[in-house]
Amino acid sequence: MALRVTHRALFSSNLANLQTNLSRVQGTQERLSSGKAITRPSDAPSGTAAALLHRSEISRGEQLLRNADDGLAWLSTADSALQDINSATARVRELLVSANNGSLSAGAREAIALEIDGLREQLIGVANTQYLGRPIFGGTTASAKAYDANGAFLGDQQPVSRSVRAGVAVQVNVTGPTVFGQPGDDLFGFLASVSDHLRNDPSQLGADLGKADAHLQTIRNALSVTGARYAQVESMRTKTDNDLLLAKSKLSEIEDIDLPATIVDLQLQETAYQAALSATARSVQPSLLDFLR
Amino acid sequence: MGTFDGIQIGSSGLQAQRRGVEVAGQNIANVNTPGYTRQRLSITADAGPVTPAIHSTWDGTGLGVRSVEIARLRDQFLDRRAMEEGTRHAELVELADTLSSIERIFAEPSDTALSATIADFVAAFDDVANRPDDTSARAQLLERARTLATSINQIDRSLSNMVELSGAKVDAMVAEVNTMAKQVAMLQDTIQSATASGVNANELRDQRDALIEQITDRVGGTVRNEDDGTVSLFLGGAALIRGNQSYPIEATRTGATLDIVWPKDGRSVVLAGASKGMLATANEVLPRYRSDLAAFSTSLKDQINAVHATGYDLDGNPGLDVFVAGPNGLEVNAVLAGDPRKVAASATPGTLDGSVAAKIAGLEGLNAPYRQMIVRLGVESQSATRRVQLQDAVVKQVDLERESASGVNLDEELTDLVRFQRAYEANSRFISAVDDLLNTLVNGTGRVGR
């Protein structure tokens, strides 16, 4: 059927076309000014699904990074404390070696005993090293100290762990007994007995030297465990960091607009709109009225 | 053939052409009137008496022209189609609008919407796991729990407000339909009496048809043309309008369910159009999203509570519920909210262990149901919008066809105007000629040789 065209039809279809053009321009401008290709789920349902997933990955990843940073801080605090403990214990061994020489006078042994006492106090101090108010060698203890002034262990042997990747928790503490030996046979009791032997029973010093070596070994084991865990957390952190970057770039791919393409789109649409405007201007003007008489 | 028949012929011509000019004028005047149907003068030649009579002097020449009627150029089938497509369009628009409002309520994806709030809340558990002794981390966790509960409740409230709004809309629409049906009945009454007395009621019919179209947009229905020039509108099998009678409908609520019924027997009205869309959104779409949200909020509550219950708080007491179902929806347990020390982060009483909190932070798939709901919303809204766009094109096409059949084309009317004007001139010239003839007869006869 040949469509009979009326002026109203002409006007309204012209208007509808202009509206369509203008709403396209508006949509593109909205995307351009917000920078987002998806502003509501219906813009791209599958894109929305991916965007939500990536967002939760990013949020989780950022938290895992925070956890890892906290773990690294625990481990590095433990590491520097262990270095101090190691050098103090090494000094004890040196003193024992020199004291084991039977030619020392009682006065000289007393001086060494005094230094050992000092080292013992210093070690108890280091054993109570805190990170953010918690004794790092005290396990999960709620008390502020891992060892009291007499060298008695106050903490527990529970692990302190940090979730550094989905499903992976790394222990970030070493407990007092793994560093200083089990209560009753620990470094502080040993140092007290050394100081006693220096003053009263030098014959025991040879055996003490062997025990000092054993303690040094325990401390170095703890150091290497700490170092290994540090490296583990750090590598996990790097992986999380990479995941996070990937998730962020994917999210941006999905959600963010392609700027040059959008600008070109906008220009094309504006051109189309202008063309439609000028076509409308031409088609709606003339009627027979312009030519009658 | 009588002597003065010539004048009679001329006068019939003048009358017919004048009516033609008037019809063109009426068409031009209504070029922009919505719902106006162009009219056309239907004229026919007057053949004169066809039955021979004894004294008839009929010589076979016609007796001029007669205008038979002024017809409305309207295609009833196009009208039907336009009504059906318009009805469908109104229903789809209602649905698409509601879904897009729901999308605005959820406001995903964004850094501030519910999914981000959930992520913040869960992350706060890790902060507590890292520093179980730090009451500020615990207080932050509780604050975020409160924010999460409030967000969920707010969304639910917005959805329930929309249900109420739909109810109000349905009430208003029913009132509107009843008023319009009454107007149609009154118009038909006038049309009936006008038709009976042979008066042209084209403009009234246009008004009636426009009203009926507005009614079918809202409630659908089928139109039947009656012999007396009126139309009846049926919803299902029951008449909303018949002749000069209209039968009002009524909006009712049974519990939370909205319906539109016939007041006389309480039966549901068979609906289409906007009202069907409104009832569907109020009775199905919105409640479905509310119950999905409620199910998600319950599963969130249960999962968090279950893990939290395995832990011990800073004072060594076992973990309480984090979330409880309150009268206003999800709420943070008031006992917990009052005392951050009661957050159960530790797996062993009396220690600064954080493994339970870490376990909650690592819960997998906590917001998966929510994500699915949002994606479903996106799909549903997208397809509804697309359907509206398609239907839009159909409606436009039908409107165009209808406009093509019934619309006023100015060029055409101007041509008609000129045509009738010229014919009018010619007719008056003819009367002058007859007048001349009579003049010759009356004044010139019998004066031969003067």
Description:
With 293 residues, chain A is mainly α. Chain A contains seven helices and four strands, in the order H-H-H-E-E-E-E-H-H-H-H. In chain A, 69% of the residues lie in helices and 4% in strands. In chain A, strand 1 and strand 2 form a beta hairpin. The longest helix of chain A is centred in the N-terminal third of the chain and has 55 residues, at 45-99. Chain A is rod-shaped. The mean pLDDT of chain A is 90. By secondary structure, chain B is an alpha+beta fold. Helices cover 61% and strands 11% of the residues of chain B. In chain B, helix 2 packs antiparallel against helix 4 (135-196) and helix 4 (135-196) packs antiparallel against helix 5. Chain B starts with a helix and ends in a 6-residue tail after the last helix. The chains are: A mainly alpha (293), B alpha+beta (450). The interface between A and B is large, with 54 and 63 residues.
Sum up the structure in keywords.
heterodimer, A: mainly alpha, two-stranded antiparallel ribbon, 7 helices, 4 strands, about 5% strand, B: four-stranded antiparallel beta sheet, 10 helices, about 60% helix
Compile the SSE list and pairings:
The complex is a heterodimer of chains A (293) and B (450).
Chain A: H1 7-34, H2 45-99, H3 106-127, E1 130-131, E2 134-135, E3 161-165, E4 168-171, H4 176-180, H5 187-200, H6 205-255, H7 259-284
Antiparallel strand pairs in A: 1-2, 3-4
Helix pairs in contact in A: 1-7, 2-3, 2-6, 3-5, 5-6
Chain B: H1 5-29, E1 39-45, E2 65-72, H2 76-106, H3 114-130, H4 135-196, H5 202-219, E3 222-225, E4 231-235, E5 238-242, E6 245-246, E7 250-254, E8 257-261, H6 273-309, E9 323-326, E10 329-332, H7 334-338, H8 355-361, H9 368-406, H10 410-444
Antiparallel strand pairs in B: 1-2, 3-4, 4-5, 5-6, 7-8, 9-10
Helix pairs in contact in B: 1-10, 2-4, 2-5, 2-6, 2-9, 3-4, 3-8, 4-5, 4-6, 5-6
